[in-house]
Amino acid sequence: MIQQRNLSMLARSLALGTALAGSISTAQAEERDEFFWLGEINKASIIINSDEGLLPKEDTPGIASALQEVIDAGNQPDGERPSAVIKFEPLWIEAGGLEVTLVHAGRSSQDMHATYRAAIQRDKLLELADQLNKTSATMIGLAAKHKDTIVPNYTNGVAAQPNSFAHYLLGHAAGLDRDAQRIREAYARIDRSAMGTTVLNGTSWPLNRQRMADYLGFAALVDNAYDASQISSMDQPVEVAQIVTSIALHTGNFIEDIMTQYAQTRPWILLEEGDGNTYVSSAMPQKRNPGLLNDTRSAASRTIALATGPVFQTHNLTPGMPDPKEVEDNSEIVDAAITTLEEFEKVLNALVINSERALEEVNSDWTASQEVADILMREHGLPFREGHHVASEIVTHARNEGIGPLDFPYSEAQRIYAETVEGTDYPQELPLSEEEFRAALDPVAIIGNRATIGGPQPSEIERMLKDAQDRIAAQDTWTEDRRGHIDAALAKLDQEFSALLSR
């Protein structure tokens, strides 16, 4: 009976040989879902176990052709694509008989599912890395256009100091770059094969775990068999959720900074009107509501809401429980982050910066006043706190009298200085000339005179722009290399499986 079935399977494999060789879809062409990866795992198991004496060679072609029949059926428009081993295997048995279960030596749905979950998560991380890089590149490109644009920056929700818009954007880009670092670090932990660990303590079958990992494009093995399906497969979605949360928080921080401008009657930064960026009020003709900002903030909030799921699902669980492992749910979290970054990129492309209005905003308040205290200490020996007191008194008087920094009388600065330092050992007359006093309040000069590494001065902006561009290029290369490694491994697997079918 078994021999007859084997002969029948072999005949079918020979008859289908040419057709099957052409019908095997490449890894790049198929949807890499659970069904896909179960197919790849089974292909690799057939090849390895046949080569290493764990599967009778005479049974191999028939078992392989039955597997290909299941895969081809699943690849049809309405084909059945089961995501669980216990639902995949009956289709295979139906196609090839009970002999196909010889491939199951030393395997379990535990290690097979842990493996395909890791494979799908690493694909999703590469998608996320791609979009993060696109959004970051757009931000850095915008920074390059605004090296000389002076804008107010805010701390505690209050205008604090002048800055270049490029420096501001590069600061936000640095946060996104840390998210890119987190993706690479998490990817290395996820890019490990659990295959061969069976349920939690390995198997008596001498399975070649490393060869399996190589066929599936994994860079390493999950070392501890208990960790493979009981611990690390619960860690992975939580770690990805943490990365996604960071991306959403960085997005929200930027969006809210822009949103505050919409509360002003004369903002210095807005969205270009139309094209889905803004929409008019149904009742108030003057309003141009920032719909794109609202949508982006909402997408970020949804991302964070989804990302809390794996944390709660993993909380207070005994090891190995399935609660946080659902592929569809965990993929949705990453997809939400990708959508958030896509919306963020649209915002960056839609920003309209009024540089004249921004400089007017800077000059309308005393955001440059710290420079007075710095100069008094750096060039004239006053302790910073004393200089700070002088500058603070100038600001208090100016605000009480409604005087802006460009119009503040030099004589009043002299009077306030003399009154503030009276009775001290410091110079009793303001040591700054009127020209020096005016220059100290010039935001453009302040930016140009910054001397610390990482400041907004032109030389540092150029350096940081180049570094940011280099990091974007390196991240692109990293993503391409990882994707290429997986594709090459799966292509090799398909090639060797096709050769096995044609025997």
Hey, roughly how much beta strand do the residues contain? 5-15%
Cα radius of gyration in angstroms = 32 Å
Number of DSSP-assigned strands: 8
Helix coverage percent: 55-70%
Question: How would you describe the shape?
Answer: elongated
Contiguous helical run count? 18
How would you explain this protein's 3D organization?
The chain has 503 residues and is mainly α. It has 18 helices and eight strands. Strand 3, helix 7 and strand 4 form a beta-alpha-beta unit. The longest helix is centred in the C-terminal third of the chain and has 44 residues.
How would you summarize the topology of this molecule?
Blueprint: H1 2-23, H2 34-51, H3 60-74, H4 85-96, H5 109-145, E1 150-155, E2 158-164, H6 165-190, E3 192-193, H7 209-215, E4 220-221, H8 225-230, H9 232-259, E5 269-271, E6 279-280, E7 288-289, H10 291-314, H11 327-350, E8 351-353, H12 355-363, H13 370-380, H14 384-401, H15 410-421, H16 434-440, H17 443-449, H18 458-501
Parallel strand pairs: 3-4
Antiparallel strand pairs: 1-2, 5-8, 6-7
Helix pairs in contact: 1-3, 2-3, 2-5, 2-18, 3-4, 5-6, 5-9, 5-11, 5-18, 6-9, 6-18, 9-10, 9-11, 10-11, 13-14, 14-15
